[in-house]
Write a sequence for this structure.
């Protein structure tokens, strides 16, 4: 076999390090990035995948479309502020919105575990319907599979989505410019803490609700107002820190963040303090960061704050230096440090 | 948020920094004992506010870091057994044993669970009478009362399927060991505030008398630490040594008596091995004979596991404050949080992990 035609069966991730998939490989941190960079990207190499955006922007006759997919395995299935159904709709809608597209059509693939109460499935389907209406998308195709009891966790959902562009703006990590202002549409960490509280039975004075929400309308409002948006990213697993780091690396720029400008709900903060979690790494489902031209920052902030999903918006920092693709944080006491990506899931501390 | 915002105020932090600078006339080396303090210092950049003459060295108070490798191996062995539910605080799961960590056991089908309290593990034992539930009882005096309470309740309720794998260590003997070492450079201590909420600080009074070092019981917020440093430097500059309590909002001289009573009921003091440091006399806890039935090492017969540390890891020197993380040749290259050589890199409270996470760009040109 000549070298060019040969293929290798050897796994590009060193098996001696990780002979088995760990939860951290899906945690949105460094291990997941390694998996994508070393195993997935080289095998499927193409310019669309290479942008490492939330969705692919594809040329079609007469224009372009945005296309994306995501899978939902959240446990518990129902949590304050949402459920797996609404999450599956909003998550995919948001990925399309982050490309700058108007989301239009979704597919849904259900993997159901034998024995799932029919009533549970019904509640999830109803929730998806309401979420789709709220987000302005139609669910146009789908698939259902049932696995043996014990081989699933009640229900897993995959959704894929297609969106269209109503403008010529190119939104992506490579578009980020030196001096760009970084905006966020509200406080961080609600989703992660809501899930954790539900899962672990943590009690608060009042319920912490997930921030899960469809963000397309907010994004399109900014775009149609002529804001020069260079890049958008919704915050999911790995939280604000992971999103900033991914973009800093992809864009090859250094971002400077002011910790004081990043807002936290009092109960989210309390939970993080008690459990030893850093809210910068806690999951969100209805928050985005927007990189906008410095001269548009004030107007973009006002527009965000006038939208229901951006009332708590703030400018948290800027793209400050050309190299080397990292994120620095000005702490509350006025010192500077690195805001790194963590390797896997955050773990509650001993004491 | 009350008790947090006022202790993270930039203006007050700068005031304390100026006060420390004004008080300092000579070089001093101060050790913060607790890993939580190390974490806060590096995360908030507290050391950057200090005059050059003040050197902070990071102490052994990270429970994950000082848990011996063979104990992690024992945990892995027990957790891999069928019909065992192995419960642990979250940050022990990623600590590498000599072959694998508890996360890998979980990935291979072991029932490994993160709990927030040993009493949750006890509850699991009651819910699963057909399984053996084991709790990894790691930590200092801070976690000892809750762990003792779980065993005490199991005993009272006659719960047979609950055991704990004990790796408890005590702070004052470790401080004495550091001060007794010929390599010691520590001139004053910030004692671990949380440990003192349980134990109080009378234990430190003989150490102060014996070694002539100031010890300041200190909290965990940036301003706590700055005030602790100030009080310590002031004593050093004035040629005094005493136990002082910066963390008075949480710590009383006698500590928490009921918590101490439950510790003494369930545990007895033994010599313990500290990872990277070696055995220190009177520095650990083991179950009293009355509670031996709850000892996982005995129930699962894993008492004789031997493990070799990576020869390259210098975590022992780091835990004693002799070397700084970035002075290690493997730091940030062969040793990272993804592939830690030793526990000071893996635990979120470990000094190496804190330096890597918050300032790894300085590995080549440290402050």
């Amino acid at each position: 076999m000549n070298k060019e035609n040969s293929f290798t069966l050897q796994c590009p991730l060193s098996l001696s390090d990780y002979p088995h998939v760990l939860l951290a490989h899906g945690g949105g941190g460094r291990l997941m990035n390694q998996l994508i960079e070393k195993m997935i990207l080289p095998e499927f190499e193409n310019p669309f995948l290479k942008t490492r955006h939330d969705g692919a922007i594809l040329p079609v006759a007469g224009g372009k479309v945005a296309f994306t997919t995501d899978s939902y395995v959240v446990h518990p299935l129902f949590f304050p502020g949402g459920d797996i159904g609404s999450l599956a709709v909003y998550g995919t809608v948001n990925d399309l919105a982050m490309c700058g597209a108007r989301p239009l059509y979704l597919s849904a693939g259900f993997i159901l575990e034998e024995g799932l109460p029919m009533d549970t499935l019904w509640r999830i389907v109803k929730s998806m319907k309401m979420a789709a209406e709220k987000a302005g998308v139609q669910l146009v195709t789908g698939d259902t599979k049932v696995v043996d009891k014990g081989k699933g966790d009640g229900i897993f959902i995959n959704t894929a989505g297609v969106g269209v562009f109503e403008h010529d703006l190119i939104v992506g990590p490579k578009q980020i410019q030196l001096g760009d202002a970084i905006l966020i549409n509200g406080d961080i960490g609600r989703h992660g803490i809501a899930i954790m509280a539900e899962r672990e039975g943590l009690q608060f004075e009042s319920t912490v609700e997930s921030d899960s929400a469809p963000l397309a309308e907010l994004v399109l409002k900014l775009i149609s107002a002529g804001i020069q948006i260079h890049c958008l990213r919704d915050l999911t697993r790995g939280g604000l820190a992971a999103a900033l780091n991914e973009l800093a690396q992809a864009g090859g720029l250094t971002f400077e963040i002011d910790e004081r400008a990043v807002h936290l709900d009092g109960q989210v903060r309390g939970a993080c303090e008690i459990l030893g979690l850093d809210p910068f790494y806690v999951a969100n489902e209805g928050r985005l960061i927007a990189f906008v031209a410095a001269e548009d920052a004030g107007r973009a902030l006002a527009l965000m704050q006038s939208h229901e999903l951006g009332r708590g918006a703030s400018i948290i920092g800027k793209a400050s230096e050309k190299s080397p693709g990292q994120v620095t944080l000005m702490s509350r006491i006025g010192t500077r440090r690195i805001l790194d990506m963590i390797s896997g899931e955050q773990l509650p501390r001993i004491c | 948020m009350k008790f947090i915002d006022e202790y993270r105020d930039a203006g007050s932090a700068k005031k304390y920094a100026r006060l420390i600078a004004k008080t300092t006339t000579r070089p001093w080396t101060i050790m913060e004992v607790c890993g939580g303090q190390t974490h806060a210092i590096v995360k908030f950049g507290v050391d950057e506010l200090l005059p050059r003459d003040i050197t902070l060295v990071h102490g052994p108070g990270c429970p994950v870091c000082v848990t011996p490798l063979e104990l992690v191996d024992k945990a892995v062995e027990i957790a891999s057994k069928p019909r065992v539910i192995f419960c642990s605080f979250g940050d022990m799961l990623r600590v590498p044993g000599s072959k694998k960590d508890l996360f890998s056991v979980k990935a291979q089908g072991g029932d490994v669970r993160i709990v927030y309290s040993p009493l949750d593990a006890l509850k699991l034992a009651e819910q699963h009478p057909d399984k053996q539930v084991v709790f990894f009882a790691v930590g200092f005096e801070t976690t000892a009362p809750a762990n003792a309470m779980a065993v005490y309740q199991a005993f009272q309720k006659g719960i047979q399927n609950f055991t704990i794998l004990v790796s408890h260590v005590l702070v004052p003997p470790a401080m004495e060991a550091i001060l007794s070492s010929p390599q010691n450079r520590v001139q004053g201590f910030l004692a671990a505030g949380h440990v003192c909420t349980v134990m109080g600080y009378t234990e430190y009074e003989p150490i102060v008398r014996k070694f002539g070092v100031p010890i300041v019981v200190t909290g965990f917020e940036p301003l706590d630490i700055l005030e602790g440093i100030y009080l310590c430097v002031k004593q050093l500059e004035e040629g005094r040594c005493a136990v002082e309590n910066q963390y008075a909002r949480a710590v009383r001289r006698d500590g928490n008596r009921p918590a101490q009573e439950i510790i003494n009921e369930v545990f007895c003091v033994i010599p313990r091995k500290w990872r990277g440091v070696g055995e220190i006399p009177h520095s650990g806890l083991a179950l009293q004979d009355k509670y031996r039935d709850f000892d996982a090492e005995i129930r699962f017969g894993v008492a004789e596991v031997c493990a070799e540390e990576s020869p390259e890891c210098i975590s022992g020197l780091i835990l004693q404050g002799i070397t700084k993380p970035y002075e290690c040749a493997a730091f940030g290259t062969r040793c990272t949080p993804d592939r830690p050589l030793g526990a000071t890199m893996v635990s979120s409270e470990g000094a190496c992990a804190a330096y890597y996470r918050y300032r790894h760009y300085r590995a080549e040109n440290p402050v």
In short: The first helix of chain B runs from residue 10 to 23.
